[in-house]
Amino acid sequence: MLFITITAATSLAPTFADAPKELTGAPPSHLQAFWIDRATILIPRAQVCPDGIYTLFSDEHGALQVTLKGIQGGMSVPLAPGSALTARQMERFPQLRSGYAVLYFPEAWTKEQARRFLTGELIVSVQKADGSLQYATGVQTAGVLDDLYAYFGTLGPVIRNSTVSESARHDFPDDSAGFAKIKVWAPTARDMHLRLYLDAAQVSPSQAVPMHRHGGVWVAVIDRKWVGHYYLIDEVVYAPGAHAIVEDIVTDPYSIDLSTNGTKSRLCDITANENKPAGWDEQVSPHLSHFSDLCIYELHVCDFSIADETFGTRQE
Description:
Blueprint: H1 20-23, E1 33-37, E2 40-44, E3 53-59, E4 65-67, E5 70-72, E6 75-81, H2 87-92, E7 100-104, H3 111-118, E8 121-127, E9 133-137, E10 139-140, H4 142-149, E11 156-159, H5 166-169, E12 180-185, E13 189-197, E14 207-210, E15 212-214, E16 217-222, E17 230-239, E18 244-250, E19 265-266, H6 301-305
């Protein structure tokens, strides 16, 4: 599961600077470094020091330790101070144009190494020339995940003979068999299974289907008999907020149909006649002269009707 921080400000500055002794012990709770692409990391400019030693650490078990002499555990790669962001980088990350220093990975750094680091706990450290720790921070990874794992295909349920194009079914040739498949973009996941349920109230799954990955996309191929039934995603992933490897059992973030109160995703063919209101195929959208004529809003049935005294208690 991925959590992305979106910042609206045009420039950012570090919220605080920890004293070295206050950094020791548990991993830092703040994420002030930005890994924006496979070659570049940004840290607050205020944390740059003369002759500083800059390092990215990763641990697949989430067991990095912060000490006065630096980060202990896991694997590491040295980072070298750079000059400035490129025009393309500034276009992608305008909020990071000022207040940040550029750090580069070694020239021999590979995409495979970056992908391995991304599945674990991440800390960037700054040490003084004598090796003592000056600064440590967690890392935001949305930029590099897009750089390495961008996917432009259809996600969620893909059902044969539905409105989804055949190209959406055949984007991964080895997954073309079967009547339906579920696709989830989760590039940092360690493992993923699909839990299948006959009805929404069922507690234990009727079947568990292993999912396999293509780049950042996890895929499960399933039979026709599961259309109209329910499923959950069982994911093992490092969770920065918990500083641990966790197992999450959640609904599909790309669901097109959910059970009551959203407790399970439903594998639904929205083009099937039984899922269409009467007269659906005969309805014609009104002519739109200007895009600005659109008026889109959300209506919550409870909020809309709660003050209507003509409803009985049961309906409320």
